[in-house]
From TrEMBL:
<keyword id="KW-0677">Repeat</keyword>
<dbReference type="InterPro" id="IPR000719">
    <property type="entry name" value="Prot_kinase_dom"/>
</dbReference>
<feature type="domain" description="Gnk2-homologous">
    <location>
        <begin position="21"/>
        <end position="130"/>
    </location>
</feature>
<dbReference type="InterPro" id="IPR038408">
    <property type="entry name" value="GNK2_sf"/>
</dbReference>
<feature type="compositionally biased region" description="Basic and acidic residues">
    <location>
        <begin position="257"/>
        <end position="270"/>
    </location>
</feature>
<protein>
    <submittedName>
        <fullName>Uncharacterized protein</fullName>
    </submittedName>
</protein>
<feature type="transmembrane region" description="Helical">
    <location>
        <begin position="276"/>
        <end position="296"/>
    </location>
</feature>
<dbReference type="Pfam" id="PF01657">
    <property type="entry name" value="Stress-antifung"/>
</dbReference>
<keyword id="KW-0418">Kinase</keyword>
<keyword id="KW-0732">Signal</keyword>
<keyword id="KW-0808">Transferase</keyword>
<keyword id="KW-1133">Transmembrane helix</keyword>
<feature type="domain" description="Protein kinase">
    <location>
        <begin position="339"/>
        <end position="610"/>
    </location>
</feature>
<feature type="domain" description="Gnk2-homologous">
    <location>
        <begin position="142"/>
        <end position="248"/>
    </location>
</feature>
<keyword id="KW-0472">Membrane</keyword>
<dbReference type="InterPro" id="IPR011009">
    <property type="entry name" value="Kinase-like_dom_sf"/>
</dbReference>
<dbReference type="Pfam" id="PF00069">
    <property type="entry name" value="Pkinase"/>
</dbReference>
Length: 627
C-alpha cells in the first residue's frame, strides 16, 4: 500500500458500508432507517437482559426477538479475564449508548472499555443474523502522543511488527472451544523505547481464518493511519486490536487472581505505596488523555465545518428520511486511476462502468454516467431504490457521487461480470453446467420475489435481461441496473406510462404497446431470460420472431427439445423441458394468465416433480394456448 494522507485510509474503509451514520457516543450506527418503532422496542427489550445473559453464559451471548421485518439480533461479548461487575457495567453502558444514538437505525456495533477496570466489551445489534465475518464499518482511535522523534523509528517499527506477528499468531490458533478462543495479549520489551502492551480478540462466532483476516485488517488500518503514535485501537464488528506504551496507561486485562505467598509487613507497605504512586500516575495520565482527545475532536469538527479538509464522504438524507453515502470525486478518481480505459468493465445506455480499488485494497465497481446525458432520472431512481433494499440476489449500492456535472454510482465489485458474457459466449458457456444454470435461474427468481412481494417497497424492474444480471465469484446471480425501475404502493397492482424504457424483446407486449406496467411485466422478461439460459442463444436469434414465439411453436409440435443447448444434451431432459414449460407460462401474451414469481419459485423448488404436477402444468398451458 503506497503512502497517502492518513484521513484517506479511514475514508476508504468507511465507504465500504451501506447507509452509514456516526453516533455521538461512540456507537457505529448503520444500515437502513426503520420507521417502525417496533424495531427499537425489540432492541430495548433484548438489551434489558443482555448484560446478565453474557455473564451467565461465560462472556458471550447472542439472541433475537420479534417477527420479520422487525426482528432484532443482539450480541454481547466481554474480553477474556473479565470480571463480572466490570463486564456488566461495560455492557450496560454500551447498550444505553446504542439505544440513545441509533434510534430506529437497524445495525450498530461498539467496542469500548469499562473506564474503572479497563476490560473491553462489545455490543452489536442488527436486523440480520450474526455468524459471518464483518469488516465494515471500522472504528479507529489513537493516542495523541507520538513516539519521541529523536528515536530510530525503523527499529521501533521492526520490533512493533514482531510483537504484532506474535500476538496475531497466538490469537488465531483457536486451540480451545472457549468463547475466548481467539485471544492473545503480550507484554513486549523494546530496545530503546518504552515497552508495549498488545492485545487482540475476535468474537467466537467466526472461523479462525476469518479472525486472522479481521485482525490483519485492523493492524493494517492502524499502521497506515497512526504510524508513530504511542498507542491506540482499531476494531471491526468481529474483532479488536489494541496496544499502548506501558508508560501511558495499562492495556492488558488482569488475569485471574492467584494465591499469593506470605510476605512481611514492610513488603506489604512497600507494595501499597507503590500501587498508590502508580494509581496517581494513571489517573493524571488518563485525565491528560481525555483533554487531548477532547481537543482533537473539537479541532476535527471545526475543520470539517470549515471545509479545511475534504473528508470525502457525508451522510445525505432525502425527503423519505433514507440515508445514503456520498463519495468524494477525488477518492473515486484515485480508485479507478482517473477512470483509466484499462479499468473499463463495460458500456451501458447512460454511462461506463469501471473497476476501482480503494486504498485498503477492496475492489469496487464504478458506474460513471455520460456527461450531459439524460441519465439524471435513472441516477436518482437507482440511488433512491438501492439504498432501501437489500437481498443476496440484488447488487449492493455502496454510495454515489454528485459533484458538478459528474454523476457516479459505486457498487460492490462482482468479479464474473454479467450473465450475457457467459451464456452467449461460445467458450464460456461450457462453464455453465445445468446445475449452475439452474442456480442462476432460481437466484434471479428469488431476487424478483423480494422486489415484488418481500421488501418494504414494491418494485418493478422493467429492464430484466441477461446483461443486467451480475455473477459473483461463486456464480450467484445479482439483479442490477435499477435506473428504469418503478416504485409501487403496496396495494397498487398496475400503472401506465408514456415513457417506455427497457430493451425490446424482453418487454411484455402490454407494456411495449400500451405502457401498462405491473409485476407481470417482469415475469414476462424472466420467462425470456429463462429460455435464453436453456438455449444458450439470444432472444433475437430465433428466426426473427423471438425465443418465446419460437419455443411455443416447437412445444405445440411436441418438439421442445429443439431449443435446448447442445451442451446440455447429457443432462436430464425431463427437468430441462419442465423449465421450458415454466418459461413459456411466464412469457404468455396475456398478462393475467402469467404466474407470479412466488409461484415460479414453488415450481422451481419441486425438482422431483410428480407426474400429476407435470400433467397439471401441461393442462394449464394447453388450455391457455387454445384461447
Amino acid at each position: 500500500m503506497g503512502k497517502s494522507p492518513a484521513l484517506m485510509i479511514i475514508l476508504a474503509s468507511s465507504l465500504l458500508f451501506h447507509q452509514t451514520l456516526e453516533a455521538v457516543n461512540g456507537a457505529r450506527c448503520f444500515g437502513s432507517l426503520d420507521s417502525n418503532s417496533s424495531y427499537a422496542q425489540n432492541r430495548r427489550d433484548l438489551f434489558s437482559t443482555l448484560a446478565n445473559d453474557v455473564v451467565t453464559n461465560g462472556g458471550f451471548y447472542n439472541a433475537s426477538l420479534g417477527q420479520y421485518p422487525n426482528t432484532v439480533y443482539a450480541l454481547g461479548f466481554c474480553e477474556k479475564y473479565y470480571e463480572q461487575k466490570a463486564c456488566l457495567r461495560c455492557l450496560e453502558s454500551l447498550a444505553l449508548d446504542t439505544e440513545t444514538s441509533c434510534g430506529n437505525i437497524t445495525k450498530s456495533f461498539v467496542w469500548s472499555s469499562d473506564d474503572e477496570d479497563r476490560f473491553w466489551c462489545l455490543v452489536r445489534s442488527s436486523n440480520q443474523p450474526f455468524g459471518n465475518l464483518e469488516l465494515i464499518p471500522p472504528l479507529i482511535e489513537a493516542d495523541p502522543d507520538h513516539i519521541e522523534p529523536s528515536k530510530d523509528m525503523t527499529l521501533f517499527m521492526q520490533q512493533w511488527e514482531s510483537a504484532v506477528n506474535k500476538t496475531l499468531e497466538t490469537a488465531t490458533q483457536a486451540n480451545t472451544s472457549s468463547v475466548h478462543k481467539y485471544y492473545s495479549a503480550i507484554h513486549a520489551h523494546f530496545t530503546e523505547f518504552p515497552n508495549v502492551n498488545m492485545a487482540m480478540q475476535c468474537t467466537p462466532d467466526i472461523t479462525s481464518q476469518d479472525c486472522k483476516q479481521c485482525l490483519g485488517d485492523c493492524v493494517e488500518y492502524f499502521r497506515e493511519q497512526f504510524r508513530g503514535r504511542a498507542g491506540g485501537m482499531a476494531s471491526f464488528p468481529s474483532c479488536l486490536f489494541r496496544w499502548d506504551n506501558v508508560t501511558s496507561m495499562p492495556a492488558l486485562p488482569r488475569p485471574p487472581a492467584q494465591e499469593k505467598r506470605p510476605s512481611s509487613i514492610p513488603e506489604k507497605k512497600g507494595r501499597s505505596m507503590h500501587r498508590g504512586i502508580i494509581t496517581i500516575i494513571v489517573v493524571l495520565t488518563f485525565i491528560t488523555l481525555l483533554v487531548f482527545i477532547g481537543f482533537y475532536k473539537v479541532r476535527a469538527r471545526k475543520r470539517k465545518l470549515n471545509k479545511g479538509i475534504n473528508l470525502g464522504c457525508a451522510e445525505y438524507s432525502n425527503s423519505d428520511g433514507q440515508f445514503m453515502l456520498l463519495f468524494n470525486l477525488d477518492m473515486i478518481s484515485m480508485a479507478t486511476a482517473d477512470f483509466s480505459p484499462e479499468n473499463k468493465l463495460g458500456q451501458g445506455g447512460f454511462g461506463t462502468v469501471y473497476k476501482g480499488i480503494l486504498l485498503n485494497g477492496i475492489e469496487i465497481a464504478v458506474k460513471r454516467l455520460t456527461r450531459g446525458s439524460e441519465g439524471g432520472i435513472e441516477f436518482r431512481n437507482e440511488v433512491s431504490i438501492l439504498t432501501r433494499v437489500q437481498h443476496k440476489n440484488l447488487v449492493k449500492l455502496l454510495g454515489f457521487c454528485n459533484e458538478g456535472d459528474e454523476k457516479i454510482l459505486v457498487y460492490e465489485f462482482v468479479p464474473n461480470s454479467s450473465l450475457d458474457r457467459f451464456i452467449f459466449d461460445e467458450e464460456k458457456r461450457s462453464l455453465l453446467t445445468w446445475e449452475v444454470r439452474f442456480k442462476i435461474i432460481e437466484g434471479i427468481a428469488r431476487g424478483l420475489v423480494y422486489l415484488h412481494e418481500d421488501s418494504q417497497l414494491k418494485i418493478i424492474h422493467r429492464d430484466l435481461k441477461a446483461g443486467n444480471i451480475l455473477l459473483d465469484a461463486e456464480m450467484n446471480p445479482k439483479v442490477a441496473d435499477f435506473g428504469t425501475a418503478r416504485l409501487f404502493d403496496t396495494d397498487e397492482t398496475r400503472d401506465e406510462t408514456k415513457r417506455i424504457a427497457g430493451t425490446r424483446g424482453y418487454m411484455a407486449p402490454e407494456y411495449l404497446n400500451y405502457g401498462q406496467i405491473s409485476a407481470k411485466s417482469d415475469v414476462y422478461s424472466f420467462g425470456v431470460v429463462l429460455l435464453e439460459m436453456i438455449s444458450g442463444q439470444r432472444n433475437n436469434s430465433f428466426e426473427g420472431e423471438g425465443i418465446a414465439a419460437f419455443a411455443r411453436k416447437r412445444w405445440a409440435e411436441g418438439r421442445p427439445e429443439v431449443i435446448i443447448d447442445p451442451l446440455l444434451i447429457e443432462n436430464p431432459s425431463n427437468e430441462i423441458i419442465k423449465l421450458i414449460h415454466i418459461g413459456l407460462l411466464c412469457a404468455q401474451q396475456n398478462a393475467t394468465k402469467r404466474p407470479t414469481m412466488s409461484t415460479v419459485i414453488v415450481w422451481l423448488g419441486s425438482h422431483s416433480q410428480s407426474e400429476d404436477d407435470t400433467m397439471s402444468m401441461s393442462n394449464v398451458f394447453t388450455e391457455l394456448s387454445c384461447r
